[in-house]
Amino acid sequence: MVFSDQAFLYLYLPITLLLGVILSGTRLFSPFILLASLIFFYWSSGLYVFLLLVSIGLNYAGALAVERWHRKGVVAAVIALNVLILCYYKYTAFLLGSVGFFGSEPLKAFAEAIVLPIGISFFTFQGISYVIDVWRREVKAERNLVLFAAYKAFFPQLIAGPIVRYKDVEKDFHHPELDTDIFAAGAARFMVGLCKKVLIADSLAGVADASFALAGADQTFASAWLGAIAYSIQIYFDFSGYSDMAIGLAMMFGIRFRENFNHPYAAATVTEFWRRWHMSLSTWFRDYLYIPLGGNRAGPVRTYVNLMIVFLATGVWHGAAWTFVLWGIYHGAFLIAERLLLGGRAVASQALRMIYFFPVVIVGWVMFRAPDLPAFVSHVRAMASPLADGAWTVPGGVQLALSPQATAMMLLACLLILMQGQFRPAGVVVAGASGELARYGRLAFVVAAVTVCTIYVIPQSFSPFLYFRF
Prior knowledge:
The protein has helices at residues 6-23, 29-45, 49-69, 72-98, 105-112, 120-135, 145-153, 155-158, 166-174, 180-212, 221-252, 270-276, 279-293, 300-318, 322-342, 350-369, 373-383, 396-401, 404-418, 436-457. By secondary structure, the chain is mostly helical. The chain has 2 domains: 25-175, no CATH class; 182-464, no CATH class.
């Protein structure tokens, strides 16, 4: 079940919101949130709900042990158990496959039978951050198991983030604040995300899929760029749309999440991009890996080593494939180069954004999307061959996917991206806005968005969010 699924939009969500509003402020709120979230996860992942319960129990008990004894060995053991569970499900097949499964067919069958549970990277990192924060005495270990489990399993952020730290939402889970303005702003924010996903991301998914499905000899300059641009748009509007929906849903329950995106394509450098893209992950690595490694306190060489370690980990976090490893190294190399050339200075240059930043990020997304390294090399080679025979032709499959709707959405998305930094959503989706005009504006927006998205959702097949696989 995903947020854009009909069963979620027209059955699960209305019932859950109604009961959540009724129970808000009562002792039954946390038990209800936990039950609703476990139902959601079971609906999405079946019996892997028991793995989520194991993660909840591990981090609940582990934090209590860390707080009681406050020894490095205890916190290290809890972190190690979290990492081992993640590695078993996410990296076993990749690691054994990299060494040819040691020539063992039973071992190969065992590894390939392991199914990656949805959201394991997110709820594992969430648990690790909680235990470390308890170790650092930035937050007290939660004694109420049901409340902690409700936080850990809270369905808006459970399977694709943002990575919500307990210290940021502790007060909200103990005393959720809910009024009509916050609820309405949350509903409008949810609909912004739904529009991003259904109208733009899903419209361009076919173009990206058709382009990346082409064999090397069939890929042309035009189709390669169309696919790369379509995927760059798709992944941004898909993932930022999910984050908008998660933030909006949480608001409707009286829980406030931090922002996860800040117009990343308005950046002029890769360094700035990572301050704006998937901020809950980038700040997680900053606070729990980069700074503990020494950050930039031990001289430039150690700083560059720390940056590369962080971005190698970032790539591996996203997926168990050499393309993700290379993607992390690729971004880390650009961050180091920008430190050397720019000295860490902020750059606000539209020209730099167009001639440097966009090509670098788009090529990075090709690496991210390609099924393997040979496919990535083949795609980039086609992108760099504007004078080859037939370079400007578009193969039939890509032409078919590039429907009038997809073309219109691509142009709209490009316009919105180019306007980032100046463009902001209307005030109707801003939580702080109040007054009659804001209320009616939100209501009008929600009604219009629900109508349009319903027209798009009903005839569509299942379309999972891209970050579900991480």
